[in-house]
Amino acid sequence: MVSPEETQKEYDDIIKKLSDPELVSNWGNFEELSKKKNYLEKIITKTNELQDIKKRIEEDQTILNAKENPSLIGLAESELSNLYNQEEKLKNELNNLLKREEEPRIDSVIIEIRAGTGGEEASLFAKDLFRMYSKYAQSCGWKQRTLASRLGDLGGYKEVIFELSGSNVFSEMQYEGGVHRVQRIPETEKLGRIHTSTTTVAVLPKPKKTQIKINPSDLKIDLYRASGPGGQHVNKRETAVRITHLPSGIVVTSQAERNQRQNKENAMTILEAKLLEKKEMADQEELHEKRKTQIGWAKRAEKIRTYNFPQNRLTDHRIKKSWKNLEEIFEGKLGIVIKNLRANL
């Protein structure tokens, strides 16, 4: 753990940098340093408060050990209980602040939702998850942008890829990646039988410009006409874009927008996120080999959650916890679930 002296030194260094007139012209660095300064200020304040409490506890304990003044002993005893509670509270607050520093500072993520097993019911479930995340994002004040989508025959999503941007978006959404399973009676089921379907979710950090460099000569770009449900063409012009990254074999598409330029930008955003994920997973795999233990990324194939509609229950299998308010959760009230995941994973 970083010492208070090191934290103070880092804070003082940032203050000096922020006073440099040349830094103001580089808004990205200025904004990053300002966020760091505000974060360190909170740590320094909590650390100083904790040190003051510890000093008062030591003073009261000295009075108790001396056993000289009965009136002071009574005051010290009554004060100590309150001081211990304050100390514990400040320790927890400081630990939470330090834990935040360990999390990657990512303000934009790319989320992919893909229908898995279950045919059209899986596509409808993918649409439900997209709506759930959209409503949660709205409640958090995040910005949302759809990058690509493929509709199913019944109005669900075979695939939808979208970007969320805002404060704490990665730390809030990072545990949503994996296989989501739904158990319910589909709209198309005439005999009232419960079906089980799955949808996969991937949460990819959106790379900063400096993180991923793509050589234009490594790209194969194809243009085609956008299509709707059932494969029918919905646009006479070739506005849809398919980009193949030749070295990795990764293929991405976008037809969410009406113009070719925006679809190309969206496809490049998806490609950059996929390349960053590929790089980070390779790094994690190398680390895994060195440590001989599984760390880091959850596998996408891992079944993380079941939504049981007949029992009105959501179960997260990683923390073995269930909630009984499915309807509210699908209306975007995911906060209680995410809070538990962040505390226990």
Question: In short, what is this structure?
Answer:
With 345 residues, the protein is an alpha+beta fold.
What does this structure look like?
The protein is α+β, with helices and mostly antiparallel strands. Helices cover 48% and strands 21% of the residues. The chain contains nine helices and eleven strands. Strand 7 (240-245) and strand 8 (250-254) form a beta hairpin. Helix 1 runs antiparallel to helix 3 (27-66) and helix 3 runs antiparallel to helix 4 (70-102). Mean pLDDT is 84; it is low at 290-300.
Helices and strands, with pairings:
Layout: H1 4-18, H2 21-24, H3 27-66, H4 70-102, E1 108-115, H5 119-140, E2 143-151, E3 157-165, H6 169-173, E4 178-184, E5 195-205, E6 219-224, E7 240-245, E8 250-254, H7 260-291, E9 303-308, E10 313-316, E11 321-323, H8 326-330, H9 335-344
Parallel strand pairs: 4-9
Antiparallel strand pairs: 1-3, 1-5, 2-3, 4-5, 6-7, 7-8, 9-10, 10-11
Helix pairs in contact: 1-3, 3-4
